[in-house]
Design a protein that fits this description.
Two copies of one chain form a homodimer. Helices cover 38% and strands 24% of the residues of chain A. With 311 residues, chain A is of the alpha/beta class. Chain A folds into two domains: 122 residues, ATPase, nucleotide binding domain (Nucleotidyltransferase, domain 5, 2-Layer Sandwich); 170 residues, ATPase, nucleotide binding domain (Nucleotidyltransferase, domain 5, 2-Layer Sandwich). In chain A, the strands form three sheets. The first copy, chain A, has a five-stranded mixed sheet. In chain A, strand 9 and strand 10 form a beta hairpin.
Chain lengths: 311, 311
């Protein structure tokens, strides 16, 4: 059976896996990124990680089709370069060329949200669906659009930047420089911001602004806290409107929601689905399920391997 | 050279053309729709129109690959049925089957906004671009997304329903039942509504609410009318935000703007481009031109013929 290596480069960890053509992880390994050591050191450790994953101890050697890598930033696909990776302090780091030369194997790049989406669409919650949009609710809101098993990349690998849809033009300032992007409201960070703003305005709540997390907001919601109720309603209404827009524009069969916030389960999904139906055209909403992601942290390595298995 | 017939079914006229594989119109004809006569009569007249277009007088007979038809409503592609065409009062009208049987040629359906977009992307203002989004500003806001020369249809041929992106959740009621859809603000109808509302509120203006058109608003704008200025700023800001969202999500190479409102030229395009850059991620905006449509009323028949030429 054909196999490939998937690498998920993150700010804290580099995850790698040997994945077969059915999407099964045969072996995986995780190493710290240690961003401060710089790009050459990280690329060298990725190279050695790929070698280890290619021939895990005790396993028969297999033919490796290639290596796919998810990059947490902007890439230039023509040159195989990471143009900008804020978390790692990278600018214009050549990745594909050097690794391909050392490994003598094809190397494929995409951004981390796209490979995670591809993983979920391939063998996760979007399995066997023609068109899937996968959204990760974490520090930001990441997204990837999968059409017939392929990532929609757009002309400069910018497609799927769902987190920066401007939904509240007079809203909070986003890292991107614009105001009111989806991720200022509906990410874990956005939920915490909304809660803290209400608390600072003196509204009565059981929440403690100190070290507040989005999970804390969901805990408070369960206890009937009014601020938490208002915040989650706001976050799910805005996210539901974004999903409604995406349903009208892309008309997918499924939207897969992952990331830390998705762990809240029904407390997130019930108001989210209600909001989605408030905003999507009825025919588009009817055609589209909204479901939780199931691959968790493996989505990235599995999707990255898919890039090399089905180029 | 291969040729096909493109049909653009509208509420008032049925346009048809014989189109060669380079997108050139060899012959065209337009007949009144006469919606009141009902579907069987209209389908019969489309059938006879196709026969005339297939062998125009004085032209050597050519091999016709098939017939493409743009339908102004919702279609079911599996059954070849128009599920709902509000303008014609149609519900569940079988189109593909009956025509294919009578013509003994392949028949392809898509919605009218999609075929117009396909025409512009193929041989119009989106020519030679990988990914194009084409938007028509008329009574509503129609849209079509063309990826590598093919219409993005989605799972139930609902993709590209750009006019129903909800951008102002507390905004005006839309025909679709939701509030604040793009087309409530940035269509010709939306612009007239905004102007009339300001006039009814007693704001001083040179515009006459009687028989007001969007062209009148642009005329008043040129004369420095403050209400017109405000209305066009609002309409272009909202449309620019929609285009910004589409750029972040789809990352196209070009957006083509057509329809009656696009005739306003720079008065529309200059503030629209400014708004677009205010809302799109910089890298997505930089990759994407915003240009006027060039095919005019021919876009639909040309795009419809493309369906049959490149199925």
């Amino acid at each position: 059976m054909r196999s490939a290596i998937g690498i998920d480069l993150g700010g804290t960890f580099i995850k790698g896996a040997l994945v077969d053509e059915t999407g099964k992880i045969l072996y995986k390994e995780e190493i710290p990124t240690i961003a401060m050591r710089g790009a050459p050191d990280i690329l060298d450790r990725i190279y050695r990680l790929v070698l280890r994953l290619s021939a895990p101890e005790g396993m028969a050697p297999r033919k490796i089709e290639g290596v796919g890598i998810g990059i947490p930033g902007f890439i230039d696909d023509r040159t195989g370069t990471a143009i900008e990776v804020v978390n790692l302090g990278w600018r214009n780091v050549a990745i594909r060329g050097p690794l391909r030369t050392k490994l003598d194997k094809p190397v494929y790049l995409d951004n981390d949200a796209n490979v995670a989406a591809l993983g979920e669409a391939w063998v996760g919650a979007g399995r066997n669906r023609d068109t899937a949009i996968c959204i990760t609710l974490g520090t930001g809101v990441g997204g990837g659009i999968i059409l017939n098993g392929k990532v929609l990349r757009g002309v400069t690998v910018m497609a799927g930047e769902i987190g920066h849809m401007v939904l509240e033009p007079d809203g909070a300032l986003c890292n991107c420089g614009h105001r009111g992007c989806l991720e200022t409201v509906s990410s874990a960070t956005g939920v915490v911001r909304l809660a803290k703003e209400a608390l600072q305005a003196g509204i009565k709540s059981i929440m403690d602004p100190e070290d507040l997390t989005s999970a804390d907001v969901f805990v408070a919601l369960e206890k009937g806290d009014e601020v938490a109720k208002h915040v989650i309603l706001h976050a799910t209404d805005t996210l539901g409107r974004a999903l409604g827009i995406l349903a009208n524009v892309i008309n997918p069969e499924v939207m897969v929601i992952g990331g830390g916030m998705a762990k809240a389960g029904d407390a997130l999904f019930v108001p989210l689905r209600e909001a989605f139906e408030r905003y999507a055209l009825q025919r588009a909403a009817k055609a589209c399920d909204i479901v939780p992601a199931i691959l968790g942290n493996d989505a990235g390595v599995v999707g990255a391997a898919n890039l090399a298995l089905f180029p």
